[in-house]
Amino acid sequence: MEDIREIFEKIEAPLIFSSRNSYKNLTLVKDLEAPMSVFLKKLISIDYPLWDNPSLAHDSPEGVAYRETLSGLQKTFSGFDGLTLDEKKERVERAFIFVRELKTLYPRLSQSHLSKTLPAVDAENKFSANPEKLSTPVQYIKGVGPKVADLLGRKGLKTVEDMLYFLPRRYEDRRSIKKISSAQIGNKETVIGKVTDTRIQQYRRKRVFEAAIDDGSGRLTAKWFKGNYTYLRKIFKKG
Q1: Helix 33-45 and helix 61-77: axis angle, to 10°?
Q2: Of residues 186, 187, 143, 140, the one with CA closest to residue 160
Q3: What is the pLDDT of residues 149-192, one digit of tens each?
Q4: At how many degrees (to 10) do helices 4-23 and 85-109 cross?
């Protein structure tokens, strides 16, 4: 199970990104409500360790404040995706306050247990101790090098900080499997089938790799307009 520090970081990361450039980045953040709901459920599932300090009961001032703050953070993200930009900005600012309060309250509930799982949850961002590391050029990250750094630079990713806050544009739930026959045109659907044929098709001057897929209910053709065709043929074999 993730410790509470990791969950706080996952909640804060999109908030920090959204607030950068005087909240101009907020327009780039899409579908935030669903992942935040997941993180908050994980946060709720972690019992704060009252057993380490019997005097801190659930109805203690600290326990009550923690639960109320957590409830406030949940309400902050309720209906978030449908809000106007100004309303989202207000919610993000409010979320920052709730998260800081939670990070302050949690250590009070059990300092002895927290020292094992939450070494650095104070009001200061943990990166503030080493700001120079955030400005490190991506070229010097292990496994990157000049060529990859050039490709990343074209997307505006030039430093470690840029990489940390390069968040997904959307989230896709691929757990719902559809039959090919019931897949709807225009929708993003997930299907599972068997490769029945592969070929490289010529469309004017463009070569396209195609793989026919059958799941018993229907058949579709997947197309790759870019890529290493030798590699694709090796991966997508008949059967």
Answers
A1: 160
A2: 140
A3: 889 989 888 888 888 888 877 777 788 899 999 999 988 899 99
A4: 150
